[in-house]
From TrEMBL:
Residues 1-20 have a biased composition (Basic residues). It comes from Nonomuraea corallina. Residues 1-36 are annotated as: Disordered. InterPro entries: Tet_transcr_reg_TetR-rel_C_sf, TetR_C_31. SUPFAM superfamilies: Tetracyclin repressor-like, C-terminal domain. It holds the Pfam family TetR_C_31. Signal peptide: none annotated. Residues 35-116 form the Tetracyclin repressor-like C-terminal group domain. This is TetR family transcriptional regulator C-terminal domain-containing protein. Residues 21-31 have a biased composition (Low complexity).
Length: 117
């Protein structure tokens, strides 16, 4: 580790760990969908969340969606990690949809990799 850059070694270890974590193709699907989906799809997704929050009967739809997402994540992660990662991805998706300065794909990947450390 260089004395000029004491944090360089820590960052390099983090990059190696991030490269070592291989996310399954579906792990960031909703984040990628948020980046590439048209505005109408994003608005409909947010409206579904709001409607489900107001009308318990609609929660079955969001519960089914979340359960499928977690099942896909559980192919690679334990149940607790899958649940947390699913919530992180949901939050990142909402932030992306509502932000006037959305995170870049690299920032999204970094957030997910940090969670998985």
């Amino acid at each position: 580790m260089s004395s000029r850059h004491p944090s360089r070694g820590r960052h390099e270890r983090g990059r190696r760990r991030a490269r070592a974590v291989r996310l399954p193709p579906g792990a960031t699907a909703r984040s990628r969908a948020a980046r590439s989906a048209d505005r109408r799809d994003l608005v409909l997704t947010v409206e579904l969340y709001v409607a489900a929050a107001r009308h318990p009967a609609l929660r079955a739809v969001t519960q089914t969606w979340m359960a499928r997402s977690r099942q896909a994540l559980e192919r690679r992660f334990d149940a607790a990690t899958a649940r947390g990662l699913d919530a992180l991805i949901e939050g990142l998706t909402l932030h992306h949809a509502l932000s006037t300065d959305p995170m870049t794909p690299a920032q999204l990947r970094h957030a997910i990799h940090r969670f998985l450390r």
